[in-house]
Design goal:
The chain is an alpha/beta fold. It has two domains: 42 residues, no CATH class; 324 residues, Alpha-Beta Barrel (TIM Barrel), CATH 3.20.20. Helix content is 41%, strand content 11%. It is built from 15 helices and twelve strands. The strands form three sheets. The protein has an eight-stranded parallel sheet. The protein has a two-stranded antiparallel ribbon with strand order 1-12. Bound molecules: flavin mononucleotide and 2-Ketohexanoic acid. The site of 2-Ketohexanoic acid has 8 residues, from loops.
Length: 403
């Protein structure tokens, strides 16, 4: 009764903004997320909020390049929705007063199983480009995989922070130049080569075709290779990469890569058990289950839906990582439960960078880490190794027979 009375007074005061009401100051004192008119605040509270901020911050052509997928963007939607179809099976009454999210990848310790995926052209988002992203990844104590198509050179990124970095490679028609890039990566302290295998040519990104997307300077190739794109139609980027990429690369070429570097090799873009088996037989040191953020083959499966297939084929011989559609700590939890060692984040990093620069990327990574920490607490998993297959239910999950 007393409680009801107090609540009523409070509501009246709240609505009247009586000068005596302690709640009068509420809208400002509660911070910018509080908006009494019910409008969406400009302060992001989750990773998805950065998408809209980035849309407002960027020219349409650049936003579409970052956000878009191939053709009908079926896989783009599926990458997210496949996570939504998996539920978590929490356990209670476990001591979760201390949560430890730390892991090691190829022997390198990181604060949580969340890495920065290789993405091209960070200077389209902000002037400092990949330097800002690298600093944010270092602050979050995680690994950044620098894209072959970065708009800062691998040397600039190496000297901007001393965190662990990997280098992502495409094999181009000029194999001598690919070899040179690998040697440079080795010399400048990159700890692994991530060979992207799903891009013999560029997928059809129709927004880029409509926008006549421009090419951007691939800084690592400066002075080495210039490709004069003649096409005036469609995406210049597509024309550029189709001219540059070697569409004839085959499994045998992993042997060539092995012969020119001592660095561990991860292969990115595996979606089937057949290819996972070939990759392990070919001697790679890790596999990244990826459909390139749904930018290559539309109707390729959502990555999380094929993760287990790959994990079973790999049989624990090398680490399996996953990217595509990871937007929540619960997504990270689900991927780990299905056998991934870690996940990579693509677009949210770009959106964070476009919206709020280095601090935006830091916030994106912190948000995902905080959400993972909460998910682990509420599921009864104090350490990463406590997250097991039995902590998730997938759509094809069969109830154990009761007979
Ligand atoms: C704008 C953009 C550029 C990308 N550039 C590269 C690249 O240069 N090399 C590469 O291997 N993958 C590239 N990717 C794919 C990402 O590494 C990653 O597979 C994908 O973004 C993960 O999906 P998510 O964006 O849903 O997190 C790019 C993705 C985006 C969105
Ligand atoms: C060869 C493509 C480089 C950029 C890229 O990977 C992307 O836009 O998805």
């Amino acid at each position: 009764m007393l409680h009801a009375f107090i609540s009523k007074i409070s509501v009246v005061n709240y609505l009247n903004f009586s000068t005596h009401s302690p709640l009068k100051a509420a809208p400002s004192s509660l911070g910018q997320n509080y908006n009494i008119k019910g409008k969406m605040s400009s302060e992001p509270v989750n990773v998805n909020d950065f998408k809209e901020l980035a849309r407002n911050a960027l020219p349409k052509m650049y936003y579409d390049y970052y956000a878009g997928g191939a053709e009908d963007e079926h896989t783009l939607r599926e990458n997210i929705q496949a996570f939504h179809r998996i539920t978590i099976r929490p356990r209670v009454l476990v001591d979760v007063s201390q949560i430890d999210m730390s892991i090691t990848i190829l022997g390198y310790p990181i604060s949580a199983p969340i890495l920065v995926a290789p993405t091209a052209a960070h200077k389209l988002a902000i002037r400092e480009g990949e330097l800002a992203t690298a600093r944010a990844a270092a602050a979050a104590k995680t690994i950044m995989i620098l894209s072959y198509s970065s708009t800062c050179s691998m040397e600039e990124v190496a000297s901007s922070c001393n965190a662990v970095r990997f280098f992502q490679l495409h094999i181009s028609k000029r194999r001598d130049i690919s070899a040179l890039l690998v040697q440079r990566a080795e010399r400048f302290g990159y700890k692994a080569i991530v060979l992207t295998a799903d891009t013999p040519r560029l997928g059809r990104r129709e927004a880029d075709i409509r926008n006549k997307m421009i090419g951007f300077p691939v800084k690592n190739l400066e002075g080495l290779m210039s490709i004069d794109v003649k096409s005036d139609h469609g995406s210049k980027l597509e024309a550029y990469y189709n001219e540059m990429l070697d569409a004839s690369i085959r499994w045998e070429d992993i042997g060539w890569l092995r012969s020119i570097t001592n660095l561990p090799i991860l292969i990115k873009g595996i979606l089937t058990h057949e290819d996972a088996t070939k990759a392990v037989e070919g001697g790679v040191d890790g596999i990244i289950v990826s459909n390139h953020g749904a930018r290559q083959l539309d109707f390729a499966p959502a990555t999380v839906s094929v993760l287990e297939e790959v994990v079973h084929a790999v049989k624990g011989k090398v680490p399996v990582l996953l990217d595509g559609g990871v937007r929540r700590g619960t997504d990270v939890f689900k991927a780990l439960a299905l056998g991934a060692q870690a996940v990579l984040i693509g677009r949210p990093v770009l959106f964070g960078l476009a919206a709020k620069g280095e601090g935006g990327v830091r916030t994106v990574l912190e948000m995902l880490k905080n959400e993972l920490e909460i998910s682990m607490s509420l599921s009864g998993c104090p350490c990463i190794k406590d997250i097991t297959r039995s902590h998730v239910r997938t759509p094809d999950h069969k109830l154990p027979s009761m007979l």
